Amino acid sequence: MQKLRLFYCVVAAAVLIPAAAFAASAVSEGERLGKPCAGCHATNGYAPGEYIARIGGQNPEYMTKVMKEFAAGKRTGSVEMSLLAKGYSEADLAAISEYYGGKAWKNSANKIDSKKSAAGLKLAKVSGCFDCHGAKGEGIDAFPRIGGQNSGYLYEALKRYKTDKITSEEMALVKDMSDSQLESLAQYFSGIRK
Amino acid sequence: MSITRRNFIKYTSAAVAGASVFGQVNTASAATGVIMPKKGKRIVVLGGGWGGCTAAKYAKMEDPSVEVILVERDPKFISCPISNLVIGGQKTMKDITFTRDKLAKNYGIKIVYTEATALDPVKKALTTKAGTLEYDKLIVSPGISYDYAAIEGLDNPAAIKKFPAAFKAGAETVALREMLVAMKPGGVVVLAVPPAPYRCPPGPYERASLIANYLKKNKKGSKIIVVDANDDVTSKGPLFKKAWADYYKDILEYIPDAAVTKVDASTGVITTEKGEIKSDVANIIPTMTAGKSAFDLGLMNKPEDKFVRADAYTLESYNFKDVYVIGDATHNGAVGGVPKSGYIANSMGKVAASAAVRTLNGQEPLAPSLINTCYSMVNDNEAIFVAAAYKYDAVSKRIISAAGGTSPERSVLFGHHAEDWALGIWNDILG
Q1: Does residue B428 belong to any structural domain of this protein?
Q2: A41 contacts in B (CB within 8 Å)?
């Protein structure tokens, strides 16, 4: 009887699986959990505004770290994310980061002030931003992509590093900068289009 | 004009080609024949609002081989979120009015502009004024209807015109805005909050804030009186009350437990459980139910139900297999404690689309995962918000909150987020 049942199962599987497999939609855990994020961050994480981060194609290693810090209450300046991240396990947050990190990056279309951007480039050169973030701000190793990120988001993040709302040894270099200098940096990096 | 033979052939051949964009189907008379005969796997989505457009797009994204047909009455997509800013004068109708063209162009979704009239869940056929559409899966996003009859004196054209609800963005939004602009300084505005559950819990209070903001700047000596059918502000209460105390102390009066029982369109007198108010402009938001199509198509599960019961895991309706229900029309007792918000409709669209696509392909549906974020402006540039993540609870078999809360305070940065939130979610629905 047991064998017979197994036989039917195998037959049924043989009949059903090819059709199903042909059409099967592969949805990763990161996609299942990550799809609702697009309500704010837009489809594929290409946020069109200025103040919400573009996450599609962001460095997944960096994103995982940040998401865990949101959940642990270490980045309270991001109020929305500090609330939301607590709803997911560490594995969930890593999976969501992998999902968005796996998308191709698309640069911001924010309007850029060319004067501020030029000042930002000078400041970036003397500050050594490119050493960690790459010549185009594309991110190296665990350092995030900032080239083509949305301008308002970059500016707000820089202010948080400056005021210790996010602690980072590498980013301590912004502590002596004025808000206007931070804005220039944000304008420069956001305006990278290559 | 009914479906002509020429049009019929056009639709049919386009359906075979499988990637055509449909213009408006003329709907002057009901057609009963099958249009766009089904060739392969097909999902029909009824309702092209926040939930429906999302469902159509995400179904196509998950499996481009599935034919997706979106059925909607109105060629224009007018966003209800942000419409309070039109009423407050910060935005115009143009800012919140969009087409669904990109859904057709970018995803190959076929859009039929018509009205649904009947559902045959056995034959799996949705009858519309343009003809009958066969489906494998039907996702219905009915939105809400107003129960005008619940308030004495409101259920007639004159009163509906005089007291626009403006909880469906469009002509009602414009009407309310124009009334506020036309009002003489020193006037009294009444805003009536309906009993929960209703679409967009913080919506009435955001609107009250923005009307107060407008009166303060433009209509000296005017007042807004918020009469609430509920015993307290139903969402972001402390944050709204703080803003009202700080900015609108002498302009905005809040009266809880004051459901409107009667309105008089000839005098503007609004009668509440706590007395009468003579209004110059009154925004009467009636009790809400699931959209009319939910009733017409037989989706209501119990005679007394006002909203549609659906399985919390898949959003498949209790009544009919392969028919899914999403958005504000869903019954909280069945799906769980999610707010009737645009963001939840967007998340539900993704859940139902995935469940429909996967079961159509012989796969198990995946557990739902949802988010809600909702910003409310309290003046021209400051916002407050609520944010929460939701997951499926296998014990209660409902969607439950996994984490969440409100903003600790109002801020200009949250105001920027509010604006970008709209851009992001409009992109996710329509782009």
Answers
A1: no
A2: 424
